[in-house]
């Protein structure tokens, strides 16, 4: 897709359908088209922000990349290896290099394990280290994420939401991965705590040359943290471009509407903006619209949009869009 | 003093918990003018929701207890009313919309039944009149085929549509005040934009006063005329909306605004974060509740909790320190 040689992750025509079964004999009657043929790259050392509304398939994309779901079709190349061809044992080995930080800091930590057990578990599973070494390593990891190492024997419920998310980050860092999928890591946190966690993620990225796939619905935070941004809508990729291009010159009408819908914490700037208010709701992914997925809510839809699925094409260098009429916005 | 349709003075609410008595609201006073939109912002646990629940007599007792204060609505103190009396105010003269539109609607009754109920109870309409009015209300909040949809159950509506139904229900008896508690928090941004648009239109058509409770400083910027910022059960700042965003005076407000990334910002910069966590108050503090996290903290802040001081026209802040000079206010 991109000419850049330093591609760490290359996703091609990834499809993830979840079958729906009905009746006594559990016959398949349909499928949720959660991800329907998306392609993108993640460069080494960058942060790719993946945004979209609930149900657009952004979390499914993250999980399918890590092979937490078995993809229906497509390819996922990580550092040149197609993950879909790997045997389970090989994939397990691969996972040392690709980790995940989850949205809900309450549900993603086992309440019956201490911090030391939680953060130390990946070390125990993946490397032959002694208990003493694990202990030292956990202390070091806790310091890295600004948690007091003397709390290592405490349980998750003794920590606040922001601290719990730090535990989740320490666990993800334990095996020194190069790639981390951050699945809405801050949406469950309070505003003043969000900034703390985002700053920490940025520091760690600089320190360890991490590559992030940062999944979020908060476009303000994505603008802050990302180098490039990918916008999804109902299982397809609507637009991919550098951060500044997406926010300054969006070429897809969905991106435009999404950006204009975000409230700005400044009454003067907020009043000056042109707003595009979309009509209706996101259609069901069980039965997505024909042609362009966005046409049912699109302010500029025409007849062709119902007939032909727009190609995901590179309109200017590094700027991809899936709209028949994107040229109008150039 | 201007005429307030709702005048809250010295409100105090506590909750008994296994860990001790939590002081959730600690002497909150504010007024709401006719037709005015008041934004109430703060993080989780700051007391913003409990303040409104106390005013409406909705604090479950035990464990909650409204210990002191008054809330005068059209000459009558809501806090002194009997359960029967306040029920006639709630729903009829003060409408409410809550965060989660799924749990706020009864899943086993049709939307029509739920919309008709307050009309029959509070206004004394006949079943037939109520049915017609219910259809009108649904049309007013932008739900197509209103007359047919009255027979549908809540699960047949999407999240945004359910929130429209909640707004229709809150406005059904033409209340003087609409209280919305995190009404758009559970919704996607494009749907949030639709709801904000709807609320602004209805405000113009019906002229009711609005209290909009949220953690999102962006939402308030586009909607409110006056804003109250709460922290640790206290009002820490209160100002007209333009003034608050242009010249925040309280260190907490300053920190909160600085910690927000903006979708219209240029370039990458470190987010200013507020260190530490919001407090849980097991006793009324002698010190300023924000002192442990404050950059400008001085000796006086640890000894005496500041009252709201005048810092500009219509602008009050509970801080001893003038953040522009770093010295104590005269």
Oligomeric state of the chains present here = heterodimer
Main sheet: strand order of chain A: 6-7-8-3-9-10-12-11
The topology string of helices and strands of chain A comes to EEEHEEHEHHHEHEHEEHHHHEE
Shape annotation of chain A: globular
- Low-confidence runs of chain B: none
The portion of residues assigned to helices of chain A is 25-40%
Return the CATH class of the largest domain in chain B: Alpha Beta
Terminal Cα separation of chain B, in Å?
A: 25 Å
Q: What integer value in Å does the Rg of chain A equal?
A: 21 Å
The sequence of SSEs of chain B as H and E is EEEHEEHEHHHHHEHEHEEHHHEEEE
Going across the major beta sheet of chain B, what is the strand order?
A: 6-7-8-3-9-10-12-11
Largest sheet of chain B: 8 strands, mixed
Number-wise, the strands of chain B total 14
Tally of individual helices of chain A:
11
Class computed from helices, strands and strand pairing of chain B:
alpha/beta
Q: What is the overall shape of chain B? A: globular
Reported CATH architecture of the largest domain in chain B: 3-Layer(aba) Sandwich
Compute the average pLDDT of chain B: 88
Q: How many structural units, i.e. domains of chain B? A: 2
In percent, how much strand structure appears in the residues of chain B?
25-35%
Notable traits:
heterodimer, A: 330 residues, alpha/beta, 8-stranded mixed beta sheet, 4-stranded antiparallel beta sheet, 25% strand, globular, B: 330 residues, Rossmann fold, 12 helices, 14 strands, 32% helix
Topology readout:
The complex is a heterodimer of chains A (330) and B (330).
Chain A: E1 7-22, E2 27-43, E3 47-51, H1 58-65, E4 73-78, E5 81-82, H2 88-94, E6 98-101, H3 115-126, H4 131-144, H5 161-173, E7 179-183, H6 191-208, E8 211-216, H7 219-225, E9 228-233, E10 236-242, H8 243-248, H9 253-261, H10 267-272, H11 303-307, E11 313-316, E12 319-321
Parallel strand pairs in A: 3-8, 3-9, 6-7, 7-8
Antiparallel strand pairs in A: 1-2, 1-4, 4-5, 9-10, 10-12, 11-12
Chain B: E1 4-17, E2 20-33, E3 37-41, H1 48-55, E4 64-73, E5 76-77, H2 83-89, E6 94-97, H3 101-104, H4 111-123, H5 127-140, H6 146-149, H7 159-170, E7 177-181, H8 189-206, E8 209-214, H9 217-223, E9 226-231, E10 234-240, H10 241-246, H11 251-258, H12 299-303, E11 309-312, E12 315-317, E13 321-322, E14 327-328
Parallel strand pairs in B: 3-8, 3-9, 6-7, 7-8
Antiparallel strand pairs in B: 1-2, 1-4, 4-5, 9-10, 10-12, 11-12, 13-14
Helix pairs in contact in B: 4-5, 5-7, 7-8
